[in-house]
């Protein structure tokens, strides 16, 4: 049986990965009971399988027809919202956050700015739309970093959300 790994709640330094086929429910229970909310800053991991459209694709779609660009953004947002609803269900973060993006591309054809700029926008908007973050302004998202890797077999985007004071 193939195991899908989703990291639900990760106290800093102690990585807890729950397998969907085993004790997935216990870590969600601990998350909702607030057992890991304490001295250490909280971290949450979101994995979006596949890849999102790039900024060049979005710009070309907007030049063709503004409605086409809007549909492209909406489709990409729906992909991210689906992943958020599967992995970060009922999570609401009140504190400011720092976002760490890891982009796993199938090849090196797209440049870093093309990959990350539109993707960051879509992911942050989806986090707000799902209620994980109140807003994606300066008061709630204090910064972000990007890392880029090549993984031909499993392109994905990993987002690590760190609560900060």
From TrEMBL:
<keyword id="KW-0378">Hydrolase</keyword>
<dbReference type="GO" id="GO:0006310">
    <property type="term" value="P:DNA recombination"/>
</dbReference>
<dbReference type="InterPro" id="IPR036614">
    <property type="entry name" value="RusA-like_sf"/>
</dbReference>
<dbReference type="GO" id="GO:0016787">
    <property type="term" value="F:hydrolase activity"/>
</dbReference>
<dbReference type="GO" id="GO:0006281">
    <property type="term" value="P:DNA repair"/>
</dbReference>
<protein>
    <submittedName>
        <fullName>Crossover junction endodeoxyribonuclease RusA</fullName>
        <ecNumber>3.1.22.4</ecNumber>
    </submittedName>
</protein>
<dbReference type="GO" id="GO:0000287">
    <property type="term" value="F:magnesium ion binding"/>
</dbReference>
């Amino acid at each position: 049986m193939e195991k899908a790994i989703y990291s639900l709640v990760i106290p800093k330094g102690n990585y807890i990965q729950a397998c969907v086929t085993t004790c997935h429910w216990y870590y969600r229970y601990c998350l909702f009971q607030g057992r890991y909310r304490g001295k250490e800053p909280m971290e949450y991991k979101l994995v979006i399988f596949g890849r999102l459209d790039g900024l060049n694709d979005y710009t070309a779609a907007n030049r063709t027809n503004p409605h086409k660009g809007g549909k492209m953004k909406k489709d990409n947002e729906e992909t991210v919202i689906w992943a958020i609803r599967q992995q970060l269900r009922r999570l609401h973060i009140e504190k400011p956050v720092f976002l760490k993006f890891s982009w796993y591309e199938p090849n090196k054809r797209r440049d870093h700015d093309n990959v990350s700029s539109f993707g960051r926008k879509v992911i942050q908007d989806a986090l707000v739309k799902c209620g994980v973050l109140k807003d994606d302004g300066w008061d709630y998202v204090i910064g972000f970093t990007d890392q880029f890797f090549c993984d031909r077999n499993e392109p994905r985007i990993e987002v690590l959300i760190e609560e900060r004071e």
